[in-house]
Amino acid sequence: MKVPDVIAAYIEAYNAIDVDAMLACLADDVHFQNISAGNVDTETRGKAEFEKLARMGAGAFSARRQSVTQTITVAERTMIRIDYQATVAADLPNGWKAGQSLAFSGASYFEVRDGLIVRIIDES
């Protein structure tokens, strides 16, 4: 299962909770959406907005891991199925409690342009 290099680097940085390395994989005009239960619940446009979200997310978890279980790449577009595991670092407004373990599956869609990620859609 071959994941394009820039996407593999992004996932590796995500798992390491290394926001700077995540940002190095993104184009300045990156567009991010998170879809939960069929609704867009988070959206950013541009690297600066994404960075704010990523830094907030990095502080919410003491550990997190995305494991790629399936991938399809056509031209500059890649769909991946993900198994996600995380440990919550502090009580969160959505009801998750510090120390709580999370596990779920989802999918992510990536578009790449000139070797950088320009679009990410996460769905769970």
Automatic annotation (TrEMBL):
Residue ranges of domain SnoaL-like in the record: 8-120
Cross-referenced InterPro entries: NTF2-like_dom_sf, SnoaL-like
SUPFAM superfamilies: NTF2-like
Protein name, as recorded: Nuclear transport factor 2 family protein
Organism: Neoaquamicrobium microcysteis
